[in-house]
Write a structure and sequence with these properties.
This protein is an alpha/beta fold. It has 19 helices and 18 strands.
């Protein structure tokens, strides 16, 4: 099959979360299966300046209709590997910025124009190139209107650009909602700005467009597919989801075992595996040294890597300050995002420098070290569509502590007593639940035999894309 993927981020070019990892791993696995893949990505400044995009060549100059104006754009193309072509849609006005979506404090005011331009450019490129797509796979709100732009271009030019479209909801909390006037930039028929179309409480919603107009809708775990049908997790979209129940599929993500595998991970000070785990102790010592602590410390190390947003349960971590202060343990937190949480987490570390370290930055190598060097990995998410770190953690022999929500339920087996099958600790997403989970972790860590058994079971699980890619292939074939 010929499959086009459009996304707002892609590892290793640009990553703010799991979306980048998922799109990279899925497209790579599809190429491994013999499919021909094209990926469309905005040409952000950091992408163009990064080493991964070196060698990209100018292949197209576009003129895109945006309301009453036509705006120019360039397309840089590279071939990272046989069977995979990457197109970078460039326009300095829209994408030459330090951060992809926001200033660091608020969303960019012109995100509507930026991503309408990007989606129209993808449709135009599918018309101009020789890539005749069987499937166009759209990811999250930034590509939610692409199915409409494809069908509109087909009508205008009398061509077929895609046999079928698939829209994946990675996080329904981020919906791409803009003022009603933004619809004028789409140049789509006015009747689409209705309750049966893009209209959402007298505004325009890109996420709704993808849900309503794609041929199939997927999300990134079976549990999350069920959750978003409810008012609690649907973020106001549960009614829209209800119209597509027969076309909604939950497929759990895999992990890229060429990148996330302690046996081959070149970013680690030592490699290890379930058969020979000795190298994990060296990673642990390196993590302690990295954050200024005694490498011979014997207590448990808790690690956390995430975007600093309310959904990641940072309030639960802040609320457990007394636990970390009272017990002989260490906490390492890596990430960034909401300024409120950045300041709060820095203050927590400053109050307990002998126990807690917080690094406010996005650093891929350090995230690997945290996964390998910690004894427990914290994911107290209030909701979690899929989550990848809980799978990374199990692969790296680091016991995950996770909330009982979304994809975490689908991928972690609860280590109850007796823990005959468990691979992690699970708790309700409340302060009481999280505190109880932390205490359970202390008890498990004190039981060296029990801890080793849970660790071994976790490392033996198969989270590769082998199963997930087969599910996507089946879905693509069925919709075709």
């Amino acid at each position: 099959m010929r499959i086009a993927h459009a996304a707002s981020e892609l590892f290793p070019y640009l990553k703010t979360g799991g979306l980048a990892d998922m799109v990279a791993a899925l497209t790579g696995a599809l190429v491994d299966q013999g499919h021909e893949i094209a990926i469309f990505l905005p040409g952000y400044r950091s992408v163009l300046d990064g080493p991964a995009a070196k060698g990209a060549k100018l292949t197209h100059r576009l003129k895109i209709e945006m309301g009453d104006a036509f705006l120019a754009g360039d397309v840089l193309t590279l071939t990272p590997r046989p069977g995979l072509r990457l197109h970078l849609v460039c326009r300095e006005e829209y994408f030459d910025r330090k951060l992809p979506y926001w200033t660091g404090e608020r969303d960019y005011d012109d995100n509507d124009a930026r991503f309408i331009f990007f989606q129209k450019a993808v449709a135009e490129l599918l018309r101009l190139t020789d890539f005749k797509a069987d499937i166009v796979h759209c990811h999250d709100w930034q590509t939610g209107m692409l199915p409409l732009f494809l069908r509109d271009a087909e009508r205008r030019y009398g061509v077929t650009l895609a046999l079928k479209t698939v829209f994946t909801i990675h996080n329904i909390a981020y919906q791409g909602i803009f003022p009603r006037k933004s619809f004028a930039l789409s140049n789509l028929p006015e009747d689409l700005m209705s309750i049966d179309g893009l209209e959402y409480y007298d505004q325009m919603c890109m996420m709704k467009a993808g849900i309503v107009f794609a041929d199939l809708v997927t999300t990134v775990s079976p549990r999350y597919a069920q959750e978003i049908q409810t008012p609690l997790f649907g973020n106001g979209m549960d009614g829209v989801i209800a119209t597509r129940i027969e076309d909604l599929h939950g497929i759990i993500n895999g992990i890229d075992t060429a990148v996330w595998n302690p046996a081959v991970d070149a970013s680690l000070p030592a490699r290890y595996s379930v058969e020979n785990i000795a190298g994990k102790a060296l990673c642990r010592a390196k993590l302690l040294q990295e954050f200024g602590w005694d490498q011979k410390f014997k207590g448990p190390i808790f690690g956390m890597v995430c975007r600093f947003t309310v959904s990641k349960g940072l309030d639960l971590v802040l609320g457990a300050a007394e636990f970390f202060a009272q017990h002989d343990c260490r906490l390492v937190v890596l990430g960034g995002g909401d300024k409120k949480y950045e300041e709060a987490m820095r203050a927590l570390a400053a109050a307990h420098p002998d126990k807690i370290a917080v690094s406010v930055r996005h650093d891929e190598a350090t995230s690997h070290l945290v996964e390998a060097g910690a004894d427990f990995f914290l994911m107290p998410s209030l909701f979690e569509p899929c989550g990848l770190n809980q799978m990374y953690s199990q692969a790296y022999g680091t016991i995950p502590l996770v909330s009982k929500v979304g994809g975490l339920v689908d991928t972690v087996i609860e280590a109850t007593r007796p823990a005959e099958a468990g691979t992690g600790i699970m708790f309700p997403p409340t302060q009481e639940g999280f505190n109880a989970g932390l205490k359970q972790a202390l008890a498990l860590y004190a039981d060296k035999t029990g801890y080793a058994a849970v660790q071994r079971r976790a490392m033996q699980r198969d989270f590769s894309w082998k199963t997930a890619v087969a599910a996507y292939e089946k879905l693509y074939s069925e919709v075709l």
